[in-house]
Write a structure and sequence with these properties.
Number of domains: 2
CATH topology of the largest domain: D-amino Acid Aminotransferase, Chain A, domain 2
CATH architecture of the largest domain: Alpha-Beta Barrel
Number of helices: 9
Largest sheet: 9 strands, mixed
Distance between the termini: 44 Å
CATH superfamily of the largest domain: D-amino Acid Aminotransferase, subunit A, domain 2
Structural class: alpha+beta
Bound molecules: N-(5'-phosphopyridoxyl)-D-alanine
Helix content: 25-40%
Shape: globular
Strand content: 25-35%
Number of strands: 15
């Protein structure tokens, strides 16, 4: 490579900042994590670091010391001094002139941001509308990869329809997850009898099983635990949009939003169009049990 052009400025290749040659930009060749803090304490850092290590290993980025990532996260968080923070970090395979394979000796790049978390209270109290979108993603959605174009397009489509999240539907007609969240339904006793002959009586909390088609969401694990704590039977089975639109309650979860009720699914109101009773119970249980008294990092 001899020259490059930045906007309308020609620069010599040797003067180009390495950031412009990041494989993350050319190929989305990297993985990321998002953690958050509640009142000055980071939630689930251990789980997020483990998932980060798994993602790195799945795309064969070697030699990253997870302990050094932990201390960078901790240092940046302390320096920012934001008590309810969103901490984003990624590692890419490195910087070099564009070449699909890449050099064996490429040195991974690390990038991190800490921002104030916008805990949108209106979303929390009133719930959100969601719209379905075809799941155009690849076959390894269990890797938290930087390739988020299908998620971006789905989210933009949802936003155009006045919705806060897009819910992916795969080619078999099954809901996988949200564009940036896990997706859950709560069904009452009659649906339990109809659809789950062996399920215990009472309310059930249902979400897609963990496969390569979805991200192993950290919040999902805690929400399942919280669900069992409040007496819900947990079932890991995919839903169709038609089933979801008949659910008593729907909600999404993610690190940054924790639990948010879904009150409209495509054009249909969920229940009476207000956050459901069990969703609210879950929100309280989740906050009380898992977000208070977190260990310091
Ligand atoms: N996204 N599924 C997808 C596709 C996601 O992007 C996310 C989170 C989740 C929820 O995972 P977790 O509970 O571990 O945050 C599920 C983050 C927040 C993001 O991309 O900003």
């Amino acid at each position: 490579m001899q020259i490059a052009m930045l906007q309308d400025q020609i620069v010599l290749a040797e003067e180009l900042e390495p950031v412009y040659l990041d494989r993350g930009i050319f190929f989305g060749d990297g993985v990321y994590e998002v953690v958050r803090s509640y009142d000055g304490k980071i939630f689930g850092l251990e789980e997020h670091l483990q998932r980060f290590a798994r993602s790195l290993s799945a795309i064969n980025i070697k030699g990253v010391d997870i302990e050094s990532i932990r201390s960078r996260v901790s240092r940046a968080f302390k320096t920012a001094g934001i008590s309810n923070a969103k901490i984003y970090f990624h590692i890419t395979r490195g910087s070099e002139p564009r070449n699909h394979v890449g050099r064996a000796e490429s040195k991974p790049n690390f990038f991190l941001t800490v921002t104030e978390l916008d805990d949108d209270s209106e979303e929390k109290t009133k719930g959100i509308a969601v719209s379905t979108h075809p799941d155009w993603r690849w076959k390894r959605c269990d890797i938290k990869s930087l390739n988020l174009l299908p998620n971006v397009l789905a989210r933009r489509d949802a936003a155009k329809k006045g919705c806060a999240e897009a819910i992916f539907v795969d080619r078999k007609g099954l809901i996988t997850e949200g564009a940036a969240s896990a997706f859950f339904a709560i069904f009452g006793r009659s649906d339990v009898a109809e659809n789950h002959k062996t399920a215990p009586a009472g309310q059930i909390l249902r979400s897609a099983p963990l496969t390569a088609n979805i991200l192993p969401s950290i919040t999902r694990d805690f929400v399942f635990k919280a669900g069992r704590n409040i007496g819900l039977a947990v079932i890991e089975r995919s839903l169709t949009p038609e089933e979801a639109s008949r659910a008593d309650e729907l909600f999404i979860t993610s690190t940054t939003k924790d639990i948010v009720a879904v009150v409209r699914f495509d054009d249909k109101l969920v229940g009476d169009g207000k956050p459901g009773k069990y969703t609210k119970l879950l929100m309280r249980e989740f906050r009380r049990k898992y977000c208070e008294e977190l260990p310091a990092v």
